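In the current project phase, we have settled on a layout for protein records. A sample record is reproduced below.
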Amino acid sequence: MTPADAVDIARDAIVVSLKLGGPVMLLALVIGLVISLFQALTQIQEQTLTYVPKIVAILLAVVLLLPFMLQTLTSFTERLFQRMIIG
């Protein structure tokens, strides 16, 4: 394996991790901003109010995105194994 191969694998791993974590983290950010805006408008300063909606939204997002995540990880693993066989 050459250094260029290692860089390609690392780049591919970073892209895959962003594909897997990006949508869920973006959803958590949006939910957090909406709840913070709601708390600022109503002056409700309950700290636990932010956790429950985020947890529910993240769990639903993971369940809905699970086929995409599994397909992405499977294709990444197949590409790694192809590199090991060829290289």
